[in-house]
Every structure is written in structure tokens, then in C-alpha cells.
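During the second year of the project, the team shifted from modelling isolated chains to modelling whole assemblies. The rationale, set out in the original proposal, was that interfaces cannot be judged from single-chain predictions alone. As a representative example for this report, we include one of the complexes processed in the last quarter. Its constituent sequences, exactly as entered into the pipeline, are reproduced here:
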Amino acid sequence: KNEVEQSPQNLTAQEGEFITINCSYSVGISALHWLQQHPGGGIVSLFMLSSGKKKHGRLIATINIQEKHSSLHITASHPRDSAVYICAANTGNQFYFGTGTSLTVIP
Amino acid sequence: KAGVTQTPRYLIKTRGQQVTLSCSPISGHRSVSWYQQTPGQGLQFLFEYFSETQRNKGNFPGRFSGRQFSNSRSEMNVSTLELGDSALYLCASSSPGASQYFGPGTRLTVL
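Output from the structure prediction step:
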């Protein structure tokens, strides 16, 4: 049983489309993280959430603590958004990771 | 400010050997975490160090160990290497309550 489930696993979108990636978790968390990983391995932390909603540029992350669910939205998607997006649940003493969503944005 | 650095970037070892990987955090960050990433298991948490003390540990065997020095630099060691230890090893540093900054990783190949 995976503590963190992400969907979809793969996503292809046309440039300009609105994208949503979903994350469900089964553990109690102190924070929920969204990470971006480009080919070559480098990981960037996009958001750290414990409640509500955060926005950074074209990226929006939301979390519903009661439902144990988080979403990452990308507005006006661009080919440079092509990457793997990983959700991670921080329990305070452990991190559990989703398997990632591979996003390809086509010009 | 310089980012998180990891050395070496690439490493090839044979089964049974041991390896030490190094991580230099962002200046001022006292927390360093280590992660293993493989195609089969994805990202997995190894351990976290804060002010030279191991604060949290993932579900890895005792062959995996680490330490942190007074300047916050951290090392992880894997003894008696197995083929399955081939992976990208990432470290990340942070300030308390803040997001983590990841290093570029060390790609370990065990032959």
C-alpha cells in the first residue's frame, strides 16, 4: 500500500492548456510538498503546504486536510513546464513520495 | 548564495565495496536530508540530520549510515554495496520550517 498516490502517471498537453495533477495521501502530515524534476535529475521544491492554497506565477497548489488530498495546477502551460512532478508527504519524521506525474507540453 | 553541492557527481563501485558521498548545504542551513531515487522504487527518504544529530531515519538497512559535521556538511556511507544500491543519491538542505533545496545528486553505479 502506497502512502502517497498521484494521478495521472503521464500527461500530455498542448501549450496554453490548464493542467491539474492530483495527490492523495493516507498518513498524517505536517506538510505536503510539490517537487519538480527535470531530465538530468535536478529537483526543485515548488511548494510546501500545510493548509489552503499557494500561488507562484502560473503554478497553484491547494490542499484539503480533511480529505487528505492536494492538487497542483499549471495555468497557461508552456513547453518549459515539461518535467516530472512529485508529491511528498512529510509526517514530521518521515517523507513519503508519490511515483510522480510525467508532464509533456507540446508547442 | 551558493547552492547545495554534492560530490562526487558520478561513482562506479563493485559489489562488496563501501562508498562515502558528501553534501555541502547552503550556508546557514542546519538541516540536511538524504534521499535515494531508483527507477523501480522512486524517491525514498534515507535520513535527516540537524545540528550534527540524526533526527529522523527512513526504512533502510544499517548498511546505510550518515553523519553531519559542525559546519553542517554531511556525509553518507553505504557499506557492503549491493547491485540494488545503484541509484541517484540526493541531499537537500533547509532552514527550520522552510522548503528544501536539493543538490544535483550523486549517481552511484554498483557493478
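The CA atoms of residues 32 and 89 of chain A lie 5 Å apart. The interface with chain B takes residues 33, 35, 41-45, 47-48, 86, 88, 93-100 of chain A (CB under 8 Å).
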